C-alpha cells in the first residue's frame, strides 16, 4: 500500500491539538447536479443503507439518482441563503464561536469543521490539521444522540482516512451527549424564549430524525437516547406526559421506521381538535433542510390542512450562547490531559516574540 506523503517535520517541534466538529453535510449548491453528487455519496454509505451493495447500486443508479436530485434541489432552493447552505453556515459559525470560547478559557488549539458527505470533507480537514502540526485530534460529531447511521459513519470516515496514513495522530472520539445538562439547558432556554414571544402551545412536538426500526432491535441505542433527551427537556419545562409528543421524521423507502411518524402524528393531532402545536427538533443542533423545509414548511402544511390553526417551528440551537458554552464544556471534558492550555511563561514568551516581530516589521518598513 502507498501511504500519503507526510508534511515536512522538524525534530523538537511540540505537536498541537486539533478539534473537528463533524456534521452530516450538504450539497455545494441547490442544483440537480450538485444534489446528485451529494446523494450519490450519502446513499452509497453502507451505514445509511444496509441493503447488499450490488442490489442497492442498481436501485440507486436506475431509480433514485436519475429522478430524486431535481426534486431535492427545488427543496434546497427554498431554504438556501446568500451565505449558502444553512447547515454549512451554522456549522461554520459554531466552529468559529467554539474556537473563541475555548480561547477565552485559556486553550490554544486548532478548531475546524468537516462534513461527512460533501465539503469540506473529513479527509481534507484531517490533512489540514496534520499540516498545521496537530498530533492529537478530538472528533466531536454534531449529533447529540448516537446512531450507527450518523455518528459511527463519521468514525468510519476518520478510520478509513488513517488506513492510508503513515504517522497516525492520537485520537479521541465523542460518542454522544444526549443527556448532557448544558445541552438540555440550552434547549430549554430556546423553548422558553420562543414561548415568551409567542405564548404556549396546546402540544409540544419533539421531532427527531428517523431511522429504520430494525436498527433498534439490532442494538442501536438511538431510539432510547432520543426519548431520554425528550424526557429530560420535558422535565426542565415542567411538562406532563400529555403535553408533549416524541415523533420521528424523514422516512425513506417502504421499510418500517421508528414510530410515530411526524407528519401523520401532526395530522392526527389536528383531527383530534388540537389547534396549536409547536415543533422542535432536538436532534439537530443547526437548522438544515430537514428542519427548515420538511418541518417548518411541509409539516406546517400537513397540520393546517388537517384542521389545525396555528403551527410554530422552534429553531435549532444554532449559535445560541448556552449551546456554545455546552459544546465548549463537552470539548473540555474530552480534551482533559492534552496540552491545550498555555502557561503564563509561554504567554509571556509569545507576547515578547510578537512585540519583537512588530518592531522588526516597522524597521523594515522605515528602511524601504
Keywords:
metal-binding, single chain, 2 domains, 8 strands, Rossmann fold, 49% helix, EC 4.98.1.1, 4-stranded parallel β-sheet, 14 helices, globular, 15% strand, 368 residues, Ferrochelatase, alpha/beta
Q: What can you tell me about this protein's structure?
A:
By secondary structure, the protein is an alpha/beta fold. Helices cover about 50% and strands about 15% of the residues. The chain has helices spanning about 30-45, 55-65, 70-80, 85-105, 120-130, 150-160, 180-200, 215, 220-235, 260-270, 290, 295-305, 320-335, 345-365; strands at about 15-25, 110-120, 135-140, 170-175, 205-210, 245-250, 275-280, 310-315. The strands form two sheets. It has a four-stranded parallel β-sheet with strand order 2-1-3-4, sandwiched between helices. Strands 6-5-7-8 form a four-stranded parallel β-sheet, sandwiched between helices. Helix 1 (about 30-45) packs across helix 3 and helix 7 (about 180-200) packs across helix 9. It is globular, with a radius of gyration of 23 Å. Its main location: cytoplasm. Pathway: Porphyrin-containing compound metabolism; protoheme biosynthesis; protoheme from protoporphyrin-IX: step 1/1.
